[in-house]
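lol ok so funny story. i was supposed to be doing the assay writeup but got distracted and ended up predicting the structure for this chain instead. priorities right. anyway since i did it might as well share w the group, maybe its usefull for someone
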Amino acid sequence: FGDYTLTVLGNIYIFIILAISYNLINGVTGQFSLEPNGFVAIGAYVTALLMLSPEIKADMYMIAEPYSFIQNLFLPNPFLVLIISGIVASLVALMLSFPVFRVRGDYLAIVTLGFGFIIRIFLINNPEISNGSMGLDSIPGFASYFWIGISALITIILIYNIVYSKYGRAMKAIRDDEDAAVAMGVNGFKIKTIAFMTSAFFEGVGGGLLASSIGSISPDQFTFMLTFQLLIIIVLGGLGSISGSILAVFLFIGGMEILRPLDDATFDLGFIHGVPGLRMVVFSLILLIIMLFARRGILGNREIWDIIKIKKD
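and the output, tada:
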């Protein structure tokens, strides 16, 4: 493959990690959370701060001098850095779970949406930590496309085992009827917190891989648009479906790239001419048509291997 194809594949693998981890809290557990951009940002910045040497940080911070503990942070081991990034995001999720899970439904969405805005504002207004709006660059590119793919495979296996464990069954019970689940002895707060922390962990790891893959990060990369893209993906694939989320990532990222020539003014098929912005119009129409005929997503809450088994029977 050429560099362009490998770059697209790397983005697909990263979005698979982000999508199936987001689906764990939103689809499997049924909690309408809008927080992924915040946890992805935490993972990306923790990875960048750990991988950048003190000398590079000293030259990079232009708005304000970095705090001494920030400048001296340095861990050249990529594996440990990704684990730490996930743990930091998971610990933030633990602290956030106490106020977040006191509400449900739309109120939960509003609270988690606010968290994403808070993280971005914090990164902009604390240049001693994050270099402010200028962001961080020269991040070591330790995440090759092969290792990003391996990380995505590990994430799929772990999330799959969680979903089909006793904790996964409890998450599904909360999604279907939380009051009935609690009445049957399920600790609602504990199960939702486990799902929230697990989702945040993998989102933090995905953020670290994203930072390494791109090589530079800034607060503008972690707006609500990132959450909105992930929400489209998990709804398109089917809430609660792991394989549906994977399929939707390929359709979403791959479809956007396949339609890219439509933005080129020189593109001409006779009956259609390239116009800047036409790609998004066509892609939006395709999504609209899919959702009209598959209102629960492409696979619904089923897995593709379950559908194959049913057809064989």
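The first helix runs from residue 3 to 28. The CA atoms of residues 94 and 171 lie 17 Å apart.
back to the writeup now i swear
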